[in-house]
Design goal:
This protein is of the alpha/beta class and about 240 residues long. Helix content is about 30%, strand content about 15%. The strands form 2 sheets. It has a 5-stranded mixed beta sheet, with helices on one face. Strands 5-6-7-9-8 form a 5-stranded mixed beta sheet.
Length: about 240
Amino acid sequence: MKVCVIGDIHGTDKWYECYRKIRENDNDCQRIIVCGDWFDPYDNIPFETMMEHYNEFLNDLKNDNRIISLLGNHDLDGYIISGQTNRTCRVRSIHKKITDVLTSNLSNSYLVYRIGNWLFSHAGVSQDWIDDNIEWKDTILSNKKGWTVDELEELCAYSPYDWSGYGNNARQGCTWIRPQALVKSHIEGYNQVVGHTRVERMFNLKDEIENFDTNIWIVDNCGKPEYLTLEIEDCE
């Protein structure tokens, strides 16, 4: 199965540019997975522009059943569930509009999407997080979409065990854990593709860490209009 993965958006036109390139160069792909974080830009992008980009995506999502929409921490924290990520919009009227549009897409959004033994999520699935939520394991790995706010609050709230404030704790959930912690506690038997942590170029941790034999791709390439293409086996 050919899969294309697009990293975090953060208000840019990255979705539009990558989707255009996919249709031109990789239109035979069977899944197009986008890692979320639609708002809270790093650059000065007007709210109206960000909303235009997100609405373009929602229209494409409605018309192309290959597209998989993942939830990121900047979609959840401070908008859908309680908590604050650093750049969550503080203007009340704008904040409510973002909350409303993100919540309206929950029925089409995934926390984790699985293809065979590959997991796609915003930040990564750790064994520690699964163990802490063992009653949710089968659901998490079953390609569930349409999570309720209460379920997201339970699974994705910031872990009280993480004193770093950054996500370097293996008990963090799949929208907040960082690569260093994920490497120490990745869920056995699965390869992963994640965004969340900004890197200059997409890369596979397997190629960077000696004696580490699990594929973990990092694809949040600082807003560049580039995407990852994988050929993976769909075992089901």
